[in-house]
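Standup notes
- HV: blocked on the assembly model, inputs below
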Amino acid sequence: MKPSPWQFSIARIPAAGLDLSLVLDEAWFLTWRAQDPGLEIAGPSQVKAEVRVAKHGRELLIRGRLRGTLTLACCRCLTPYVAPIETDFDLLLAPGPEPLKAGEEELTAAELDQDFYAGDTLDLEPILREQIVLQLPVKPLCAEACRGLCARCGANLNTEPCTCAKERSASPFASGAN
Ligand SMILES: [Zn+2]
Ligand SMILES: [Zn+2]
């Protein structure tokens, strides 16, 4: 495997800490999407990540700041739109646990709740991906007032009139978008 630019040897992180300025560019998002087809990022996205890694004994404190834009698909009209991402995070990673071998006990709930790094390498890629996923809206909307698609003819009601409109408004069951 090629060495990843997101992986750092923990032994080589200086005592004063490591400051990183990373750009998660379109290629980075494309790779992610190829590996995770369910990822809800619908087009060109770019995020700048400022990350500080500091050692606290055997634990690693990761402080990060993400700023950029993501292309998401509106859940009502399905049209891609650009949304800003702006988040700061703090994570404390503990060493281990080693991968389970046959016959070993399963992890306790408390252990599962904790974030870990494995071996002597810190891999920032899954950490950055997780922080971005945490910022994705459950119901992405291009605008609060998005009118969505006509359930009958599929017209995008934000941009085109729909010929079913009369029947729709005549129905006592006609509801708003979504
Ligand atoms: Zn929309
Ligand atoms: Zn229609």
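- HV (later): unblocked. Residues 51 and 64 are 4 Å apart (CA to CA). The longest strand covers residues 80-95.
- Next: hand off to the docking folks.
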